[in-house]
Amino acid sequence: MRQRRWGIVALYTGLTALSVVWLVPVATAAMISIRPLDEIRDGPWNLSGATFTLDNYVRAWQQGVSGFALNSFIITLGSVALTVVVGALAAYAFVHLKFRFQGVAFFLLMTTMIVPIQLIIIPLLPWFRTLGLDNGNWQFVGVVLVHTGFGAGWAVFMMGSFFAAVPREILESGRIDGAGEWAQFRHLVLPLALPGIISFAIIDFVFVWNDLLVALTLLDRSTQPLQVGLANLQSPHLSQQDLVSAGAIMAILPPVLLFASLNRYYVRGLFAGGVKG
Questions:
Q1: Most CB within 10 Å of its CB: which of 27, 72, 231, 252?
Q2: pLDDT tens-digit readout, 252-275
Q3: Does domain 63-276 correspond to CATH entry 1.10.8.50?
């Protein structure tokens, strides 16, 4: 009993130390974001005669962060919504239905989890031009489809385990009551698998929101998201650490707030997957 207690203490001590290490650069960025540039050149933690201001946030917002943030929300919300819908329908089909070439289709879908996106991001450019997805607002459609294509495998893999955990007896009782496949999916499977669906949605939101490579390669400046916009604020000839730090703090707020608001579903999803997987 004592050894188990010491093991728990050691585990939480290690996790706390790792959390502190992770928070150091975040706290440094937050400190830089609320101080004038001429002061942070002497060190962000040099508080001798320090002044604090929110002007950096206002200037960063006015210098393009507002537009980049809007693009990020359009891309991320569109990608997550489409991936969850497609992934949920596909996961239900693979788990509860039987159809021809099911094994082959599942294998091909799982390959999207194996192939690195870096290998095919450049070959995607001719397809963008051929399909007309490289102009104007159609670029949003194109990048949403790319993120959905790469997220669908993960969606089926994660949500499929929750759909499989739904007792067969519940589905059979639904069939006896006259419920078709769509009614079973909507009224029986989805409510029971909601924690798993929300868990995947949170993970996919963070992944798409933090994406830099896909957006940098496929989108022009008018449709680029916040992560690319922050990189554009900094140049070799112009140091704008104050604006970049303010933008970085604003960039991490949406995922943090999303996780905080849906944390109970995320934890339930992890425990459910751990117990039944």
A1: 72
A2: 999 999 988 887 776 665 555 444
A3: no
